[in-house]
Amino acid sequence: MIDDLKKQLLSIPKNREIKLVISLGYPSSDVMRKKVRKNVKDIINYNEY
């Protein structure tokens, strides 16, 4: 359903698959979100998946 909306907004044929969408530009407001970094221990694994 969301892909159908994207296809309609961007005039993409229905038989095409959207693989990637990159947005460019500036935000509509000057308010920046607070950035929270993940702890390295939470994103790195040693000898396991």
Task: Record the SSE blueprint.
Elements: H1 2-10, H2 40-43
Protein name: Nitroreductase domain-containing protein
InterPro entries: Nitroreductase-like
GO molecular function: oxidoreductase activity
General description of the model:
InterPro entries: Nitroreductase-like. By secondary structure, this protein is mainly α. Helix content is 27%, strand content 0%. The protein contains 2 helices and no strands. The chain has helices at 2-10, 40-43. The longest helix is centred in the N-terminal third of the chain and has 9 residues, at 2-10.
Kindly, what is the distance between the CA atoms of the first and last residues, rounded to a whole number of angstroms?
33 Å
Total strand segments: 0
Rg, Å, rounded:
18 Å
Average pLDDT works out at 82
What about the largest sheet?
Answer: none
Percent helix range: 25-40%
State which percent range the strand residues make up: under 5%
Low-confidence stretches: none
Order of helices and strands: HH
Helical stretch count? 2
Class based on secondary structure composition and strand pairing: mainly alpha
Shape: flat
Explain briefly what this protein structure is:
By secondary structure, the chain is mainly alpha-helical.
Notable characteristics:
mainly alpha; 49 residues; flat; oxidoreductase activity; 2 helices
